[in-house]
Request: fold
Amino acid sequence: MDVKVFIPRDTTALAMGADDVVKALKFQSKQNINIIRNGSRGLFYLEPLLELATSNGRVAFGPVEVDDVESLIAHGLLEHNIDKLQNHPLYLGLTKDIPYLAKQDRLTFARAGIIDPINLDDYLSLDGFKGLEKALNLNNQQIVDEVKASGLRGRGGAAFPTGIKWQTVLDAPASQKYIVCNADEGDSGTFADRLIMEADPFVLIEGMIIAGLAVNATQGYIYLRSEYPQAKIILEQAIKIAYDKNYLGKHICTSNNHFDLEVRIGAGAYICGEETSLLESLEGKRGLVRSKPPLPAIEGFLGQPTIVNNVISLTSVPIIFTKGAQYYENYGMGRSRGTLPVQLAGNIKQGGLVELGFGASLDTLINEFGGGTYSGQPMKAIQVGGPLGAYLPKTQWHTQLDYEAFKDIDAVLGHGGVVVFDDTADMAQQARFAMEFCAVESCGKCTPCRIGSVRGVEVIDKIINHDNQKMNLELLNDLCDTMELGSLCAMGGMTPFPVRSVIEHFGSDLVKPSLAKGEK
Amino acid sequence: MNDLQNTSGNADAQLNKLTIIVDSKKDLPGGLLPILHDIQHEYGFIPKVALGIIATKLNQTEAEIHGVISFYHHFRLTEPGANIVEICRGEACQAMGSKQLENHAKTSLNIDFGQTTTNKNVTLEPVYCLGNCACAPSVKVGDNVHGRMNDKKFDKLMNKLTTFELSLSDNKLQENK
Ligand SMILES: Cc1cc2nc3c(=O)[nH]c(=O)nc-3n(C[C@H](O)[C@H](O)[C@H](O)COP(=O)(O)O)c2cc1C
Ligand code: SF4
Ligand code: FES
Reply:
């Protein structure tokens, strides 16, 4: 039997040395060995994860470092000597049975890490383009209705119902409409978009074609952040193949439907993740936020009706058609339907991507999956939903992953980023950073955000330095009010979330109690 | 990335090349960012002369082009060092000690963010998330991300850049990283 080994070409796998492992393996094996560069399964704490194909399925080893290659070969990697390999200290058993993976609901990420991202046959063999096939037999309204019935809400942060957005674009009369994929993934602590674009790019292409069919849009753009060069390479390879095989172009699957797709690269501006700023940037301008209305669905790219959707929203579309809206809708709780790919990050032992139906508690995620902190110190705070999300204290970790449940505690699920901090974290510094980040990334259009954030840093510095703490805390609260109420977009409007959560739940870090006594 | 000095002796050649780049993308809807990316990819930064060419071809003023360039952190108007080293300042990296790493990098390289070492080898930049948040803290050198970074690993990485710079060209550096 041929020796077939899988080693990912995903950014995190590469960042942990996957290329060096490949080189070492090629160098040290005397025979021909078939090394597939797959995407990552998202079990990042195990990267580089090396898998070996066996007659019982793929078995895994990880994390594999260059120095482990010799012992893997000595344990019979190249002879499929499973009896001996089982005794290797990095042996993890069948990949699909690793509890971290087995306990997930892999719907959107069903193929991630299993396939070679740019092998079309791999994609087709695991239901690839089946959703498109179905959509090609439906009319516009039927496609939009299916998305509505799935209950899918935008995964970029605002959780707006995707089907309703599509309906608006469908109903807007225009000769040219656009599909724009928001792949700016600016939230720190998130990597779901990157992971799926690098592991399964065809699913994004398929989702975008279906969106195009739904509203008669013939041109799509993927606005990808410049910080993701590996995703760019893989997406462009996949798009080329899709053109060659007539999934893109003038005659999709020999039909008369037309869809063109292009990757556009951002330029390091967080605000360009906000949809109207993104559209300005895509038009070649400064990324200044537009006032709404008009909605992008009515006047978007170049003033034409445009669907702007997050990567995960669009990559969730194909399975809704392949398996039916009802199948997808059966996952979840309340008004949060389907699955959420949660990203466990920061000071966490087992960081990675966990896709689960809405409803699991934060506790389950950080303990059952995450396994506690990386440092081994007790956990102190969890920031959910990126830099504009609140810091949650232990008393809130029972909260279920559900848009409304998070709203009830003045927090956001956002794009599903979960960043864990241990007890060495100084939450006053985290509050300060929230303001600092807003100052760095503000588009500058409105004063509460542009000036307020700079003042916010100053005021927090004063509080930290015991300068008129009581008065400055009041000032900080006022400032938060002003930013919340007076900002044009959520950049300025939500920066107060993390700040206020620190004041409310970690106040003793901000106003050190022993010193506070001396204050008037 | 080409060294501009190679071409500055021949201003005409440079103008030609810039014109070709701008012409190839100027008719794209919203083509300015793709043009700027191509130019920066070619030279490592946007040379001043490019602004006039772009402005003319896109029917905009130089001030407008400058306004766009200055809005984006990624674009630069001055020549960077041979290697751009970006240190992630995002929250997931903070939770894993990136502040300490940032201080170490600045001290050991003896530069602040936005500056270049005197030997022109390294330009240090902040970055806000590299999508490697599960294996933080993260650092990016050129197009390559490095995870679970610490002071010692950072020094090793920087040493490698200096040694390689002496013996190999940029292209080979990519292949032999
Ligand atoms: C400051 C700011 C940054 C944002 N960044 C992103 C981002 O990086 N990716 C994203 O998909 N949405 C981001 N959004 C949300 C978008 O504005 C928009 O809601 C989203 O792209 C719509 O797609 P969806 O309905 O599929 O979520 C951001 C919003 C704001 C206010
Ligand atoms: S809130 Fe900030 S980022 Fe949003 S429009 Fe105003 S200045 Fe721009
Ligand atoms: S926060 Fe540093 S890589 Fe994401």
